[in-house]
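Researcher: Batch entry, complex prediction.
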Amino acid sequence: MEKQNQPDLEKQDQSTRELTNSLQQKLDYLSTLRQAITAGDDRLVYELIDGDHYHQALLNEESNPTRNAQVDLITDVHPAISHYLSTKLIDYLAHEYPFFYYEETQTGEFQIYFGNWWDRRRFGKLNVLKVAFDFSQEEFNKLQKTFELAAAHKRFNTDQIQKVSAANDELQKLIDAQDDRDAQKEKLRQQLKDNGQRNSLFDSGRIKEERQQIIDELTKLADADEQANNAHATMKDNEAKILTLSKEDTILAYEKQAIESSFKSFENFNERNRSLYVDYLTTLIGKAQVAADDE
Amino acid sequence: MTNETKKIDSATLSTHGKLAMFNEGLKKGLANGEAFTTLMDQLIDTTDGETLLTAAQKLANFKLDSAYVTFPHQYKNADYYLIFMSRLLSMHDDEQATLNTRAHSEALYHVFEALSDDYTFLYSVVAGENGGAYYREQTTGENLFYIHLERRLLRFNSTAFTNLFINKLLLKGTGVDQINTVLATLINFGHYLQDDFGFNVDFNILDVNNAARYELREANLNGEILDKLFVIAAQHDYMLRNSPNGHGAEIDLPGELVVDVFDAGTPEAAKWVLTVRDPEQRVSWFDILLHFDFIRDWYLANIDSLEIKADPLVFA
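Model: Structure tokens for the complex:
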């Protein structure tokens, strides 16, 4: 009875066999991944989630998309896998990049903070599955510029700070020159009075012109007075600007120092970033080797 | 019969009664003086703490003159606080504060060996119901602390300490050592009151306890103020770090000193505070101000926001 109800393997057609094989491969893939995670074999997990990249990067093999035939099965659990893999990866990064700090904003998503100083910058994201930094382009460019400017003994905002400081110096001069302006106005008013008392039939054009000149001068001084009156508010705004710029310079200087003390140069830093996947996976292979030798 | 006697008595007693009243008044006045001298004996000679405190309390409120007996030579009530303080300090072998008498009068004041005699300290009694007294430097009028003997309460005042010891003295060339000598005596006085009599003491800006939270005048501190510290600290090779515990910042100083500035309030109501931590719990915020120029500059330049709050009940 029972035997009659069993599917007859001999009688299965080709396509059904292919289907069951294909499903078996999927099952194998998933169960290997599950075992790898259970066993804490992060190297194998990386190989499974992007085998093609793994083989190219670590074994110098040609690209072969069939290695990734099953990876679509797990896209929905990528955040969870990322979360799982982050523990060891961040341990490793904490050692190699001691100035980066991470915050998991949602499962498997990691914000990078640069440094532990006051108001440190958000510097982008950590892509755990790809073992790569995804830096914020704007922040990265500022840092790059900082390294370039260092050769000229300049900081990122040196020029701008100088400009705003100079503006403040000018305003201060304007305030300080109030007494001079008052004296000048007094003199001009007297001239205007004298001018009004002169009355010449033949020279009226010249007197009129002179009068206009005096009035123009007085208007200019009145403008300067008004500017001086508003100078305190502007100077305060400028000081706030200088503070913001100095703060940014300080942060960039700390970032630069941090990179130099770990990598010597910005170029080395960038190079390390590019080889991060290979470097990390190599240490995982090394660890697996040591573990195997110990057994 | 009774009515008759009464009549006679009232006539004769009018003179006698007046004399008796006068005599009674004198006796009372003299007894009052006698009581006073007993208290004075205790205040200047006793070696027992509680007796000393009780004598000072009573003398601080003593009315020596009466309707019939007045005394031409008297000390002011405030002076008994000063004598009490001197006695308590000398019972603990602290002789830094010298008790002086003004020439030709009974007025008392303190001078400190470590400071110039231009700076004289005395008590100023608070009029009105609250009572108590301020310990005041005379030329600057700075009230360094408030004391209430009956309520056994002592409150130090950050504003006065900053104005006198930093703005008036340190920034005009007085050495930190000299200032510390005076501070030590004032702080010791607080400790003696605490240990000997169980006073409730708020050391305020002078508190060396690691748990001390110095509350800032601007409860909701503007972030710019910390930006300024960040920049100025970097210029002096110190790093203001992001606070690992919550909203704020901290800075490491030599000698395993850590200064924290953070919001100790609730999400609804910010309350920014400063703390100073050191392994031996010997350093107060005021010590930091005395020793670290860049922090002092920052504190003074932003004093409207950063000033440490003193007890608002006695330092309005």
